[in-house]
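hiii, so i know i said id send this last week but things got crazy w the move. better late than never?? heres the sequnce for the chain we talked about at the cafe, plus the structure i predicted for it. fair warning i was half asleep when i ran it
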Amino acid sequence: MSGLTIGLLSLDVTTLNVIAATSESEKERRNAKRIIPLVKKPHLVLVSLVLGNAIANEALPIFLDRIVPSIVAIVISVTAILFFGEVIPQVNFFFLF
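okay and structure toks below
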């Protein structure tokens, strides 16, 4: 959710309109047209993604607690959320290689 939040909120409506109107690729035009309504409502998108992220972050330790001891569930969930939910999505693509 963190990477999706960064990705969607960094898009510009004007750029998407240009892509939707002038791109040579039909796939790019179609994708730009689909994303434009979301980008026009950034507050709704942000609230939805943050709410989904919070639900996922709270649900992980609850589910893990049923299959492993509580302290292990806490350590696994905190580590997984930190790395896979916060750090890795925000790392610049060029630093991955």
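btw The mean pLDDT is 87. thought thatd interest u
miss u guys!!
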